[in-house]
Write a structure and sequence with these properties.
The complex is a heterodimer. In chain A, the strands form 3 sheets. Chain A has a 3-stranded antiparallel beta sheet with strand order 1-2-3. The longest helix of chain A is centred in the first third of the chain and has 29 residues, at 113-141. Chain A is built from 18 helices and 8 strands. Chain A is mainly α. Chain B has one domain. In chain B, α3 runs antiparallel to α5 (125-135) and α5 runs antiparallel to α6 (139-170). Classes of the chains: A mainly alpha, B mainly alpha. Chains A and B meet through α5, α6, α8 and α17 of A and α6, α9 and α12 of B.
Amino acid sequence: MSAATGVIKDLEERGHGAFVENVDDDRMVINMGPVHPATHGVLRLLLELDGETVISCEPIIGYLHTGMEKECEDQNWRSAVTIVTRMDYLAPFFNEQAYSLAVESLLGVEVPPRGKYIRTLMAELNRLSSHFVWFGTQALDMGAMSGMFYGFREREVVLDFFEMVTGLRMNHNYIIPGGVWEDLPAEWEPVCRRIAEIVPNRIDEYEELLSRNPIYLERTRGVGVLSSSDAGALGATGPMARAAGVDWDLRRDVAYDAYGDLDFDVPLRTDGDVYARYEVRMAEMRESIRLIRQLIDGMPSGDYKNMDTKLTPPPRSELNRSMEAVIHHFKLVTQGYTVPAGEVYRAVESPRGELGVYAVSDGGTSPYRLRVRDPSFVNLQCLPVMTLGGLVADLIAAIASIDPVMGGVDR
Amino acid sequence: MLDITLNTWQILIIKILVILTVVPVGAIVGGYAEHKVMAHLQHRLGPMYPGGFHGWATTVADGIKFLFKEDIIPAAADKKVFSLAPAAIMVPIIMIYLVIPIDAALVVEDLDVGIFYLLAVSSLSTIGILMAGWSSANKYALIGALRSAAQLIAYELPIVLSAAAVAMLAGTLSLNGIVEAQRFPFALWPPGLGLALFLVFVTGAVAEMTRIPFDMPVAESEIITGPFTEYTGMRYIFSHLFAEMGHLVAFGGIATTLFLGGYRPVIPWEPLELIPGFVWFAVKTMFMIFLFLWIRPTFPRVREDQLQKFAWKFLIPLSLVLILATGAWVLYV
């Protein structure tokens, strides 16, 4: 028997194969996913049910694995952003930001103030658009299908702004090591102010729809509870941990990019149930609006990316006049910049938690190794703890409250 | 005046044809209404293209699409039961339509025990759902079927009790008799009591139709489509779509007949009597259907155990109290 057959046999025996058999007559072993309306993509859960009570729950992942981390090793440092941005596809700016921070640390370059502010602005808008999707899916999974349409309606407004700035609705490739790729377009300010004006009203609408709805409260209070000690032990971060009372937010506690200049609160709850996560995310959306207003008001002028010609190609106009510009342009376009040998870990606070990038350079023009610590992946391992002893309906509510993005989990 | 005399068999055949047309047409119109009402409640347009004007032919196109789908019976399924289940679900729903009086003389059969027959028949389709869930050889289908059965037991009682109160007040079991007894909406009722009975009935009806917030038997985010997970094509239409819409229209008609004065005008005013009874019936039924459709985009889904708690600890005691109050009213007032 070859090693491969052994592994397959082992997987089949543990129920990881496609077909699962009931253990005995009292308990039902059931495959939820990878194709299932409420598993947020291709998450597969191997459930053991006693009636409708969940006895065991094993998340099985890998159905969306595309080897993106490995793929980055074949790209130069600049173009790896293109791949990184596709990992957690609901939070592309955060992927780019974490990666860029890591590369900048290795390079030892500074981002000009305007570049930092633009990054922070885009990240906060992205937090809004990501939370809108969470709101929509959380509502839909609980049967409140109107929430889905409301959430996506507002997300569209934010995505239109992204398209205006970056040319794309998702996978922007906009935040790059050294700053951002393009300056904001001329009419960005009124559009941004309009978003900051309408979104709070829409969040009020959401709250009216669900926050005091007795059915919603019954379904979410005391359901999917994750204690603060479990959150710590399992490495949960972001709204998951803050809803359990872990007061940790990288924006405040590490203060990367422009967050040091800004004034904001970190919403905290102690219940650790689905409703606490709901409240934390709702409050976070309002905080994001506060941050966006400050960022619009405080947007500095000046360069939007580091203009060092070792990092950024010189303007086209100079290519006709300066030999040095031609050389820099040629080197950057054909080979890309080199990054000094070393290793670094930088993390940002993504809508789902701590999104970290661990980058290793051997002094070459492409990453030697790139590892992404995606919050969805880590938060997902809390699922069994949260759901054991609950009903199938509670499991669905708990998955939605983790807000996993399978693109980020499998990378 | 045309003088046509038909023998019993000819009348029977006409009645059968009428009912077999009314049910699918009702389902198609109801389906379209659901698309559009829900869309507008959710700030969107809904289907706009099929047929030209506001997508009026959407449900027709849907039906034709389902007609062309492959008819799949799972290899592990109990084939006979699996094929019979859609019929077992659909036939009782069609049978509901037999006794609903659309106008004073426009009713297929004016049974003396109309309300009794109605309640008996309306819960029969659960047998079909259990058949579908068990024979599919699918675990989700089984869970859905069991949820459906549990729900039936919990929610049939409030419906029966509130309908019984109506029969007590009207003093008859015949549906035509009930309409004639109350003349206009809530006319029979002692103030407040009528509305309470109506709300109990509507709650029970929503659960009986397995619509949100009581749609756990087919909760798509939990158990796909419950008992109908394995069904495709026409079998799916008959077991799920027609059944859901047929139930919706039927319960709209039942609620109209029991509580809203059926084919009688809404207020006792002479000129309104000129409008034909079936128009009043249609308007009131549409109002009821709109009410049912309105509930769906408004509420989240409750959990199975919460539903049972709500039914046994609140709704059934409440309807028992209501029936006592009705009895007291009939006896002493």
